[in-house]
TrEMBL record:
Residue ranges occupied by any Chemokine interleukin-8-like domain in the UniProt entry: 31-91
InterPro entries per record: Chemokine_b/g/d, Chemokine_CC_CS, Chemokine_IL8-like_dom, Interleukin_8-like_sf
Subcellular location: Secreted
Lineage summary: Eukaryota, Metazoa, Chordata, Craniata, Vertebrata
Single GO molecular function: chemokine activity
Source organism of this protein record: Acipenser oxyrinchus oxyrinchus
Family of the protein in this entry: Belongs to the intercrine beta (chemokine CC) family.
UniProt GO BP: immune response; inflammatory response
Gene Ontology CC terms, in alphabetical order: extracellular space
Signal sequence, renumbered to the chain: 1-26
Protein name: C-C motif chemokine
Length: 102
């Protein structure tokens, strides 16, 4: 009985790790690279440290917002999607409050 619980917890933990890996790193080719597709999973504001914009001019093929998470992951999102626009607004407001406090 005790062994089954540990096995279930181990499988659950492994599943969560694989999901987080697939939703972030699979969409960003690496440092100095471009986003090649978008993540469709919504991200919580608390998980994001900052964001940068990728433009389709030059080396990159698509416009994208790159969310940089507290776990040092980069998640590519479509800048035209409603939840991405809302998140950028909230991040901008959060950053303005931080600069006022300093």
């Amino acid at each position: 009985m005790f062994g089954i619980k540990i096995l279930i917890l181990a499988v659950l933990a492994l599943t969560l790790v694989l999901i987080s890996y697939n939703t972030a790193d699979a969409f960003f080719a690496g440092p100095g690279s471009c986003c090649i597709s978008y993540s469709t999973n919504m991200i919580h504001l608390r998980a994001i440290r900052r964001y940068t914009k990728q433009e389709s001019t030059g080396l990159c093929n698509i416009d994208a917002i790159i969310f940089h998470t507290r776990r040092n992951l980069k998640i590519c999102a479509d800048p035209r999607v409603k939840w991405v626009k809302r998140l950028i607004n909230r991040l901008s407001k959060r950053n303005k409050r931080k600069t006022r406090k300093q």
